[in-house]
Amino acid sequence: MLNQPDPSKYKWGFIYFNPEDDNLIVRKSNPILGWTLNFAKPLAYVFLLILLLVVMLIKRLLPH
């Protein structure tokens, strides 16, 4: 997970898509910007869906 990802594997400059990379979470091409998901892995979409559902649940449970 600490390896620098291949910049040619980014779609539109910000979506990392590399089926040959076993990591789900990788550093962004600019490490100052943090981490990103490898969208070649189906688990990345599951992670995003769960994150969205948690945010929606928290929003619904908080008083208005």
Please tell me about this protein's structure.
It is elongated and about 45 Å long. Helices cover 31% and strands 16% of the residues. The protein has 64 residues and is of the alpha+beta class. The relative contact order is 0.16. A hairpin with a 3-residue loop joins strand 1 (10-11) and strand 2. It has 1 helix and 4 strands, in the order E-E-E-E-H. The protein has one domain (7-61). The protein has one helix at 42-61; strands at residues 10-11, 15-16, 25-27, 35-37. The strands form 2 sheets. The chain has a two-stranded antiparallel sheet with strand order 1-2. Strands 3-4 form a two-stranded antiparallel sheet. The termini are far apart.
Which helices and strands occur, and which strands form pairs?
Layout: E1 10-11, E2 15-16, E3 25-27, E4 35-37, H1 42-61
Antiparallel strand pairs: 1-2, 3-4
Structural class: alpha+beta
In total, the number of strands is: 4
Order of helices and strands: EEEEH
- Give Rg in angstroms: 14 Å
How far the N terminus sits from the C terminus, by CA atoms, comes to 40 Å
Provide a concise account of the structure shown.
The longest helix is centred in the last third of the chain and has 20 residues, at 42-61. The chain has a two-stranded antiparallel sheet with strand order 1-2. A two-stranded antiparallel sheet has the order 3-4. The chain has one helix at residues 42-61; strands at 10-11, 15-16, 25-27, 35-37.
